[in-house]
Known about the structure:
With 237 residues, the chain is α/β, with parallel strands linked by helices. The chain has helices spanning 11-20, 72-100, 121-140, 178-190, 202-211, 214-224; strands at 54-57, 103-108, 147-154, 195-198.
Amino acid sequence: MAPAPFINKTDAQKGHVAGGCGAWSVPLQVQPIGTGCPHGSTAPSCPQVGDITILVNNAAVVHGKSLMDSDDDALLKSQHVNTLGQFWTTKAFLPRMLELQNGHIVCLNSVLALSAIPGAIDYCTSKASAFAFMESLTLGLLDCPGVSATTVLPFHTSTEMFQGMRVRFPNLFPPLKPETVARRTVEAVQQNQALLLLPWTMNILVILKSILPQAALEEIHRFSGTYTCMNTFKGRT
C-alpha cells in the first residue's frame, strides 16, 4: 500500500509510486455519483487483482460555503460522493468479503463529523452521515468472522482540499501530514481498531462535547477561531 503520495496522481504516476514501495497498482473506473449502486451492487472485476479484501473509502469533495450561499448541485455532489458513494462501494465489495470471511472496510472521514464548523455545512453534514454509516456497519459486522471496519477521523490535513483554511493557533493545532494519516491508518487496520482520531488530542474534543454545556462549547469555538477558520478558504472541490 502506497498511501499519501497517491493523492492527485495520474494512473501512471500511481503505478510508479507503487513500484517504489514494492507494490503495483491497477486502475479501475468506478462512478459512484448517481441514484443507484453502480454495477448493480457487483464489484468491478479485474483478473490481475483477484479478490478485493481491503476497501478504503477516501473520496471526498468540499463546497466550502454557508447554506444560503451554497449551490444546490454542489450540495448534492457532496452528499453523493462523501456519503452515498460509500454505500455503493461497500455494497459492491462486501458480499465477497463475507463469503471469504476475510475483509476490511476503511473510511477516511474527518473530525468534522463530530464537531462541525461554519462555512463547510455540506462537508460536515456528509461526514457526519458517513460516520453514522460506518458506526452502524461496524456493529453489524461484529458477528461476521474475518470482516471488520475502521473509521479514521483526522484533524485538518495539509492537502489542497482545505487550502486557505486558517486556525487561530497553528502552532498548537498544526495540520497533519498526509503521510502521518496514511501510516496511522495502516496501523489501525493491522490492529483491527474500529475508531481512530488524529491527533490523539481530538479525543479530548469528544469528552468536552459530552460534558460541557452548549454555551461553554460556543466560547471554546470562538476562542479557537473555529467560527472564522473558513473565511480564507480557497480549496478545491
